[in-house]
């Protein structure tokens, strides 16, 4: 009997959160490129598609009425309003992936993570990415040259509040070196995939190994 073939597992949901500039998006992209069993969650949104965006790949585009119905019927794992638009994670495609043994990555803030914890705690692995220092966080925000000085100051002002939610996470990774951080999150994934409760049919499998009827 081949154990590696017969023993299957349920997929998991891994969340990476961090203050802006700490590196979660870079780590997420690297993991997605290296791990064939990892897929990024796709959100539903009420905003209009932008040029080049594809339905089901970038977002599920829905109107406000359909979005509200999904929320009311408990079909969203998490949802939030961002300015004039609404965003949320539909439950059905995530559940389908998990049931097939595929893992789903989420790039959400601490508020989204709280909702995911309420709705799918058994499947969830929460990782908080920290910068090595506030000075380094500020340097990274300026060096990526994406934001104005006003925006950088705003992000820095929000960072301490965001980092205060670290106790709500299962793991902390201090992103000093991006390659090392990717390796650490990859190690977390490897360990979580081997957890006993994620293994499907484990009792029957062990009984078969032992020759029990």
Runs with pLDDT <50, length 5+? 1-5
Could you state the CATH homologous superfamily of the domain at 3-41 and 103-210? P-loop containing nucleotide triphosphate hydrolases
Helix percent band: 40-55%
Q: How many angstroms separate the termini?
A: 15 Å
How many helices does DSSP assign? 9
Describe the secondary structure blueprint for this structure:
Layout (H helix, E strand, L loop, with lengths): L2 H4 L1 E2 L3 E5 L6 H11 L3 E3 L2 E3 L13 E3 L2 H9 L3 E7 L2 E6 H9 L3 E5 L2 H11 L3 E7 L3 H10 L5 H15 L7 E4 L3 H16 L5 E2 L1 H9 L3
Parallel strand pairs: 2-8, 2-9, 3-8, 4-5, 9-10
Antiparallel strand pairs: 1-11, 4-7, 6-7
Characteristic terms for this protein:
alpha/beta, Rossmann fold, four-stranded mixed β-sheet
Task: Describe the overall structure.
With 213 residues, the protein is an alpha/beta fold. The chain has 9 helices and 11 strands. Strands 3-8-2-9-10 form a 5-stranded parallel beta sheet, with helices on both faces. It has a 4-stranded mixed beta sheet with strand order 5-4-7-6. The radius of gyration is 19 Å and the shape is globular. The two termini are 15 Å apart. The model is unreliable at 1-5 (pLDDT under 50).
């Amino acid at each position: 009997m081949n154990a590696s073939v017969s023993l299957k597992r349920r997929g998991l949901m891994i969340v990476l959160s961090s203050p802006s500039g700490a590196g979660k998006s870079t780590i997420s992209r690297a993991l997605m490129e290296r791990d064939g069993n990892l897929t990024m969650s796709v959100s539903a949104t009420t905003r209009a598609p932008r040029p080049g965006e594809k339905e089901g790949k970038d977002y599920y585009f829905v109107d406000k009425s359909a979005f509200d119905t999904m929320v009311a019927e408990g079909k969203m794992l998490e949802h939030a309003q961002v300015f004039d638009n609404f965003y949320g994670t539909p439950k059905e495609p995530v559940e389908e992936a998990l049931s097939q043994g595929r893992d789903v990555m989420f790039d959400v803030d601490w508020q989204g993570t709280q909702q995911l914890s309420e709705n799918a705690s058994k499947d969830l692995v929460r990782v908080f990415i920290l910068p090595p220092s506030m000075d380094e966080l500020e340097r990274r925000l300026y060096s990526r040259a994406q934001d104005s000085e006003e925006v950088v100051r705003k992000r820095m002002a929000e960072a301490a509040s965001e980092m205060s939610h670290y106790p709500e996470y299962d793991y902390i990774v201090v992103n000093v070196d991006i390659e090392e951080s990717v390796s650490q999150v990859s190690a977390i994934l490897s360990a979580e995939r081997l957890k006993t409760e994620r293994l499907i049919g484990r009792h029957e499998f062990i009984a078969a190994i032992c020759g029990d009827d």
